[in-house]
């Protein structure tokens, strides 16, 4: 089966619009990739691809391009896991497809990029680290049973996003025979199957600058790994990379709902499996959004020059805005699925359901070894299975996400979110 997409080519560079009607225009950088398969009702009808297209030395922070593409054909993949992506989440399928095309060695204007070791070897033999090792999608699928493989696909999409971000920009540079600014890093953020943004990270203070301002109550979850332990490369650019990767795997968890509904047996086991693999991911939206906004607020105070330079990096802001919008929508849809759609499915199956609030005390260990005790309220779904009289309980809310959301509702965070966002 083939899917045909009819698209035309347009490039918007700064304030000038050029209509490209023939190939071979050397002054413009045109990035082309396969057309977007759209088989899901969740998909947008917009057929544009936006790419931050830097100048010929690939260092301009403000230049951007909007590109759409000619008619292309895409085959339905034979691999059963890729076929799930193709049918239920075209964005993930495109992400995997493009990342699979990244060669293990890329030569850009005489400089060799090794995507297996994460470094550039320049013409004069200097080795520069650039990103973590590139790993392909199937390398993350380790389970043999089907539910296990579906579960593995979620982190596989996450890691595929990292591999794409770190190396696809060099594939584009190589194809265009561009001469990038030497000793520089370029990341390509995959937004969806019609849009990507190339960003040039800058040398700015590390994420550790926010440690002293994060309240003790919020020093949990992913904070210890990504902030306290410094497991974040390239400061806020690394946070954006994680924000993007968590968005893609959370969106795939959302899209799996339709697969579970249409292709798997409708029973308690199926929906218990879906709940276990999909529920917790949405919390990452609030965590990394909070990290990014907090970093920007602290940077403005401790290093105004770096802050102003970062705000001039329009590609960075464009990538953040696009991911933020899509991630927020994904989280809202997941909330509806868990609080309305799945309880309705349990009722259809003849199970009785009840939603109730439970108050409890939680003691958490902080990164410094101390403990903190909180009084929390949580929303639960009670499911009773009549034939066995078994009762199961499911979380419907995420108290930590609620705390982060409340913190980001403060005026300073609202102001920073508005300043950081940018229109295309």
Strand and helix map with partners:
Blueprint: E1 2-5, E2 10-13, E3 16-19, E4 49-51, E5 65-67, E6 72-75, H1 80-88, H2 90-100, E7 105-108, E8 111-114, E9 119-121, E10 127-129, H3 146-176, E11 187-192, E12 195-199, H4 223-228, H5 235-263, H6 268-278, H7 283-302, H8 304-311, H9 314-348, E13 352-365, E14 371-385, E15 390-395, H10 399-407, H11 411-420
Antiparallel strand pairs: 1-6, 2-3, 4-5, 7-8, 8-9, 9-10, 11-12, 13-14, 14-15
Helix pairs in contact: 1-2, 2-3, 3-5, 5-6, 5-7, 5-9, 6-9, 7-8, 7-10, 7-11
List keywords for this structure.
single chain; 424 residues; alpha+beta; 4-stranded antiparallel β-sheet; 3-stranded antiparallel β-sheet; 15 strands; disordered N terminus
Helical run tally: 11
Question: The biggest beta sheet, please?
Answer: 4 strands, antiparallel
Overall pLDDT metric: 77
Q: Class by helix and strand content?
A: alpha+beta
Query: What's the total count of β strands?
Result: 15
Radius of gyration: 23 Å
Helix content: 40-55%
What portion of residues belong to β-strands?
A: 15-25%
| Alpha-carbon distance between the two ends | 35 Å
Order of secondary-structure elements: EEEEEEHHEEEEHEEHHHHHHEEEHH
